[in-house]
Design brief:
Elements (H helix, E strand, L loop, with lengths): L1 E3 L4 H8 L21 E5 L4 H12 L12 E7 L2 H5 L3 H19 L4 E7 L6 E6 L2 E2 L2 E2 L1 H4 L2 H16 L18 H70 L9 H59 L1 H19 L5 E3 L2 E3 L1
Antiparallel strand pairs: 1-3, 2-4, 3-5, 4-5, 6-7, 8-9
């Protein structure tokens, strides 16, 4: 809950009731979705004019102090997982229920506005009201620490239970951040998680790229080796063709050539066997390298797919990304945490 003085009200209204021409420094706002924002309660006057009219109607005996709190604002919502399980109509009914709760508790006539934002990371509602009780302004008494604790408990009992929401830890001393600080904290956490995932993906991609380069080099070496073997076999192939011509009777046999032919044939047979063996080895090596190349390509495609999924998660589900990173960090800690010693009979074993 935030308290605002007179000079703060117009900027808050500008941020809450923004249209498509609204300019903000908050990078979480997607202006293409601003037209989807809607109001549960919307007055026909500005926030300031509505407040002035209400105060005038109170007929206070003294003039309102310049530092008086004129508006109290609440941000109502839940996490992305909760809203993703609801239809648009159910989401709207949830915010209507929240508005009814505040109207019953503090008076519907005192609610300045209730506007739902759908153009940020997670749907949420800004509800603004004038802190009036017993016919006077009393923000300090109306929203002291005890009342805020009661407000959270009662809100959970009336609204939270209906929508299966869990209440925050009661009595927690955790400091609540204002809206701007909370958004800044969330953006920093999302950025850090995204940078860590990006570094992991880049490291994996670099390793895959190195393996791909190595596979390409091996393939080129095998291709060069195969070409060399083909050059070496060409003369032997020519000699084999001559022998085949003698064998087929297409060339006249010269007795003086018989020893030479026999020697060449023996040499050709031996070298042919060696070359065939080398070609078989080369073919197997080339097949292995091609298999490695295909595996590397698949890994590269998988990494690219993981990177695309990471970008989608970082854009549409930053809360889930943070949960995953926290789980990974916890598992790493558990992995290296020393295991306790257990008793086994009269001896101690780890």
């Amino acid at each position: 809950m935030e308290k605002y003085h007179k000079t703060d009200i117009a900027p808050v209204e500008n941020e809450n009731e923004r249209d498509e021409s609204y300019q903000a420094v908050n990078p979480q706002i997607d202006f293409t979705r601003t037209r989807n924002n809607y109001n549960i309660i919307k007055r026909q006057r500005s926030y300031t004019q509505f407040i002035n009219d209400k105060i005038e109607a109170l007929d206070l005996p003294t003039k309102v102090r310049k530092d008086a709190v004129l508006m109290c604002s609440f941000v109502v919502g839940s996490d992305r997982e909760f809203f993703s399980s609801l239809s648009p109509r159910e989401q709207q009914q949830f915010f209507v229920d929240c508005t009814h709760f505040f109207a019953e508790r503090y008076g519907e006539d005192n609610i300045i506005s209730a506007v739902v934002h759908l153009d940020e990371t997670t749907p949420h509602m800004h509800l603004n009201l004038i802190p009036i009780a017993n016919g006077r302004l009393c923000a300090k008494q109306l929203f002291d620490r005890k009342e805020l604790q009661n407000l959270q408990s009662d809100f959970h009992f009336v609204v939270g239970k209906k929508w299966n929401l869990q209440r925050g830890k009661e009595g927690s001393q955790a400091k609540h951040l204002d809206t701007a600080a909370y958004k800044l904290k969330k953006m920093k956490e999302e950025t850090a998680a995204a940078e860590e995932q990006k570094a992991i993906a880049e490291q994996a991609a670099a390793g895959a790229e190195q393996r791909q380069v190595h596979a390409e080099q091996e393939t080129q070496q095998l291709e060069d080796r195969q070409k060399q073997l083909q050059r070496e076999t060409t003369p032997l192939q020519a000699a084999a063709e001559v022998l085949q011509e003698y064998n087929d009777g297409r060339r006249k046999l010269n007795k003086r050539d018989l020893p030479v032919i026999a020697a060449e044939a023996a040499k050709l047979k031996a070298e042919n066997g060696q070359l065939e063996e080398r070609l078989q080895i080369s073919a197997r090596d080339q097949h292995d390298v091609f298999t490695l190349y295909q595996k590397t390509e698949r890994e590269k495609q998988a990494l690219q797919s993981d990177a695309d999924v990471l970008r989608e998660i970082r854009e549409h589900a930053p809360d889930k990304l943070q949960e995953v990173m926290e789980t990974v960090r916890q598992r790493k800690l558990d992995k290296y945490r020393p295991k306790p010693f257990k008793s086994s009979g009269n001896h101690w074993s780890k």
